[in-house]
Amino acid sequence: MAPTKYLDRPIPAISLADFDSRIDEITEQLCSAAESVGFFCVVDHGIPVTTIEEAFELSSKFFALPDSVKAAVPFSNNAGWEKNAQIRPSTGAADRKESYQMQFGANMEGKWLPDSELPGFQLSALTFMHQVQAVSEKLMKCFARGLGFDDNYFIRAHDISRPESQTVCRLLHYFEVPADNGRAGEVWHRAGAHTDWDLLTLLFQKGGQSGLEICPGREVSTSFGYGDTWTKVEPSSTGAIICNIGDLLMSWSDDRFKSTYHRVKAPTEPGDYYGERYSIAFFNQPCHDALIQGPKKKYPLVTGAEFTRNAMNLYYAKTMAEKEKKLAEPTKMDVGGKIVDGIGA
Asked: The dihedral of CA 64, 65, 66, 68: what is its sign?
């Protein structure tokens, strides 16, 4: 495997303080970051650090439960628990992780554990999810303005109160990786190089648990960033939320905003983090019946359901093509694989 090439790049940090009075300034900063990097972090967003820490404690309690208990809410219809089940067609291997995906309202029917198993979990999780949604809606308002839509354009398309909502919050637990990873003939992947296909992703990382890397601005010269330069995004202890543009917003902006490749690199090199890793990802996904088309109408009008289905079909095709390419040219293969469900780190 070729060694990874790294380049230090600044990740724009954008303050949401005094949002209503600074909305024009914030909109300009967000649009600039979306056009150039596709990644940024937001600070002064209103979610206390203690609340984020409590969310990670909640996640830890869930994943500490016996698998037999978590299996009572198996993954289906974009919600529930899975373990070692996300297989990368590009590698033929599953990520060594487990996750629990949560939605709003009736979409979670039968997907919450009973309170007797995890007291207060459902209420606490939903409270946190609504707080993250509020931050998302501020960002959506700015991007709508930047594209010339009315302020609530994206908010309406991502209305979590409707049964057509697809927005999800995903708790992630990556297992500890053997210290000889990659030297014993097998690489334990965490999350291979991918883009998300939602509108926006808001990611919370737990301090000290590194691994997230980006290949920003679609600067790549090869598929999925293989052989190109990456930048490490270290976790913050200040409560900063790492955000990235998804394929949906890239399409909805007529490719003005950039959906960026990112990964949680499989640790194989000195200095890599091998311990268990927790993160929380919030994916703003459109309602099934949302109508999607950019202001310049570069792409045909589709619904949220059609966009998701088209993205899945495209990603499977691209992933299999990339796998064949790598098999033919093994020296160009790097650690990781193209994700197939658009769900990130």
From this structure: negative
Could you tell me if 299 and 311 are in contact, meaning their C-beta atoms sit under 8 angstroms apart? no
Tell me the three state secondary structure of residue 239.
coil
> What pLDDT, in 10s, does the model give residues 34-77?
998 899 999 999 999 999 999 999 999 999 999 999 999 999 88
* pLDDT at residue 253 greater than cutoff 50: yes
Q: Which pair of structure tokens corresponds to residue 9?
A: 């790049």
**Nearest-angstrom CA–CA distance, 231 and 229:** 7
On whether the CB atoms of residues 138 and 16 are closer than 8 A, the answer is yes
Distance CA 175, CA 139 (A): 32
Q: pLDDT band at residue 267, thresholds of 50, 70 and 90?
A: confident
> If 0-12 CB within 10 Å is exposed, 13-18 middle and 19+ buried, where does residue 66 land?
exposed
Please tell me the predicted confidence (pLDDT) of residue 342: 41
Closest to 230 measured CA to CA, from 1, 7, 3:
7
